[in-house]
């Protein structure tokens, strides 16, 4: 299977990962690309490069949680594949736990129903490594217990189970990828920002970097373009149907090391502030990516130091333009 001449819809496509995926899909020769996003975190400026590559890219502002709001889009034309990235992010669940859970699950239920009704052919759904919670054993493979410790994590785990049930009950053509911690240009640096963009932003403003907890908690960071390629490869490989695949580097790094790396790249030699640990923060994350290697020949190409340099350079250029 190839994307050339296919009709593609990307939910959450104006977001960080979604916009990079839109570029990759265009690069692969998709005939029609539609981005559906409610702009909760997504930004139209994220699609600038995608529009350059394909001026006919279509953007539709809609909320995947509203079936009546999205059905016209799916009724309009025959869609070959939906890459489903629409999500309310983890930090939102710390302030609005019930809403985050319900909204994420409603979005997944709607996409499953549309698949069941034949409104599109193939679903590639983005899960989250947060579904695993803190590592029970390491590295964590796809059979690791789902021990998520936030309502965001539980909503993503429930979504995965929901998709799998539709696959078993109705035979929907679907694959799930479970990305670990993504980073790179365009990652949200505003509300609900992750550790990398928020640390870069603090240093650009002349503030001290902040670490929550002791900083020894670990993550498995993957550069965003590696994730976008993996998503396309999952679609193109029929053997992934009905499966969940981890997508990561398979290397753990502490938050202390992440923040120190950013400080080094940006020439900061001052004090790092430590504050109380955030609720539900997982202690250890490192992925087993053997299944993705076996099925889609997944091999991350961007190492952490190079990816961080590219990421910081993007935020520096963005800051200069302001």
Features:
11 helices; alpha/beta; globular; 7-stranded parallel β-sheet; 322 residues; Rossmann fold; two-stranded parallel sheet
Describe the structure.
This protein has 322 residues and is α/β, with parallel strands linked by helices. It has a domain at 7-184 and 224-251 and 285-301: 3-Layer(aba) Sandwich (Rossmann fold), CATH 3.40.50. It has 11 helices and 13 strands. The strands form 4 sheets. A 7-stranded parallel β-sheet has the order 3-2-1-4-5-6-11, sandwiched between helices. It has a two-stranded parallel ribbon with strand order 7-10. β5 (120-126), α6 and β6 (173-179) form a beta-alpha-beta unit. α7 (195-204) packs across α11 (304-321) and α9 packs across α11 (304-321). The longest helix has 20 residues, at 97-116. The protein is globular, with a radius of gyration of 19 Å. The model has no long low-confidence stretch (mean pLDDT 96).
Which geometry do the CA atoms define? globular
Strand content: 15-25%
Structural class comes to alpha/beta
What letter string, H or E per element, gives the SSE order? EHEHEHEHHEHEEHEEEHEEHEHH
Number of strands: 13
Secondary structure layout plus pairing:
Elements: E1 7-11, H1 16-27, E2 32-37, H2 48-53, E3 58-61, H3 67-76, E4 79-84, H4 90-95, H5 97-116, E5 120-126, H6 151-170, E6 173-179, E7 181-183, H7 195-204, E8 210-212, E9 218-219, E10 221-223, H8 224-236, E11 244-247, E12 253-254, H9 255-266, E13 273-275, H10 290-296, H11 304-321
Parallel strand pairs: 1-2, 1-4, 2-3, 4-5, 5-6, 6-11, 7-10, 8-13
Antiparallel strand pairs: 9-12
Helix pairs in contact: 1-8, 5-6, 7-9, 7-11, 9-11
């Amino acid at each position: 299977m190839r994307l050339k001449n296919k009709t593609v819809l990307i939910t959450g496509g104006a977001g960080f990962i979604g916009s990079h995926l839109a570029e990759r899909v265009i690069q692969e020769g998709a005939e029609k690309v539609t981005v559906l996003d409610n702009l909760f975190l997504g930004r139209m400026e994220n699609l600038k490069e995608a529009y350059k590559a394909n001026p006919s890219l279509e953007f539709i502002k809609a909320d995947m949680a509203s079936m009546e709001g999205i059905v016209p889009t799916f009724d309009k034309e025959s869609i070959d594949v939906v890459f489903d990235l629409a999500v309310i992010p983890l930090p939102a669940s710390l302030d609005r736990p019930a809403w985050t859970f319900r909204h994420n699950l409603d979005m997944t239920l709607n996409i499953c129903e549309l698949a069941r009704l034949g409104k599109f052919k193939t679903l590639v759904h983005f899960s989250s490594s947060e579904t695993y919670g803190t590592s029970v054993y390491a590295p964590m493979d796809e059979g690791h217990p789902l021990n998520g410790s936030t309502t965001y994590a539980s909503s993503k785990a429930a979504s995965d189970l929901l998709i799998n049930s539709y696959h078993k009950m109705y035979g929907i053509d679907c694959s799930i990828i479970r990305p670990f911690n993504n980073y790179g240009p365009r990652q949200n640096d505003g509300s609900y920002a992750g550790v990398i963009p928020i640390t870069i932003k603090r240093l650009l403003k002349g503030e001290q970097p902040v670490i929550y907890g002791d900083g020894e908690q670990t993550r498995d960071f993957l550069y965003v373009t590696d994730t976008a390629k993996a998503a396309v490869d999952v679609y193109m490989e029929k053997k992934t149907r009905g499966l969940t695949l981890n997508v990561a580097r398979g290397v753990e790094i502490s938050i202390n090391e992440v923040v120190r790396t950013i400080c080094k790249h940006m020439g900061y030699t001052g004090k790092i502030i430590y504050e109380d640990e955030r609720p539900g923060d997982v202690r250890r994350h490192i992925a087993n990516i053997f299944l993705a290697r076996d099925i889609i020949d997944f091999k991350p190409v961007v190492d952490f130091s190079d990816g961080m340099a590219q990421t910081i350079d993007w935020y520096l250029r963005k800051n200069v333009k302001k």
